[in-house]
Specification:
mainly alpha, 6 helices, globular
Amino acid sequence: MKVVVTIVRVLLGLVFFVFGLNGFLHFMPNPPPTPAAGEFFGALIKTGYMFTLVFGPQVLGGALLLLNIAVPFALVILAPVIVNIIGFHLYLSPVPMQLAIAFIVTAFELFLAWYYRAAFAPLFGGAPRP
């Protein structure tokens, strides 16, 4: 099982590290966006800071996964990013292949969260003790 966990962790880390860096460095071409996705990206660009908030956590979470450092923390960082990716591909850019990749990334995240579930147990343990 540890081998499977390592493979999934590295694959998920690579996806987020590489695509997060691409958001800053633009070394891979992006497919042409749908009109709705183009408007969405245009609005993000106009804010001047949203791309940092979108791609920064991807780089950080991906690096933590690749380095096998604070994996549960990396999963927490990446969870809202993955929710946004799913929403983006469901509503703004429903390209079947990209949506399939988004669901695979989600499955990897859920698999790792289950494997590291002991780290998350205190979050669901009831009222904190004083």
